[in-house]
Amino acid sequence: MKVKIKKLVKHAVMPSYAREGDVGMDLTAISKTKDEYGNQVYGTGLAFEVPEGYFMMLVPRSSNAKKNLMLTNHCGLVDSSFRGEVLFKYAFVDSHEKETSIQKGVNSYEIGDRIGQLVILPYPHIEFEEVKELSETERGNGGYGSTGN
Predict the structure, then answer these.
(1) What are the CA-CA distances from residue 75 to residues 39, 90, 118, 137 (Å)?
(2) 40-43: strand order across its sheet
(3) Which domains does the chain carry?
(4) d(Cα 24, Cα 59) in Å, to the nearest integer?
């Protein structure tokens, strides 16, 4: 599948797969700022034209486990109608370290680092049908911990 991509700045890095068979493509930080809440905001300098019927999912890389950062929305969803710059916004996990980490640049990504991944997936158009009853299952309405594990 071909997806149109626009470099918003000359030095933006095109997304790429790290290895053959990878699901996600790495995205690289070309800017690093702080928002009004103290979160690290990384710009990619890229905008996408995701085809209708598809969406782009933004997720952290596995190397994020080495950082004191958590993607603020845990998983970003980019609709096919969005044409702005793709950003990653990370919050510091430990609030005590938040200020010192920001000041020292510790446990965060830097410009030029691969900051996350993108995956483009199809989605069905859902129509809900209101009913009075749902079909019976063995689990029923058993929620968290209902399997006994």
Answers:
(1) 16, 11, 10, 30
(2) 31-34, 40-43, 87-92, 69-71
(3) 4-122 (2.70.40.10)
(4) 9
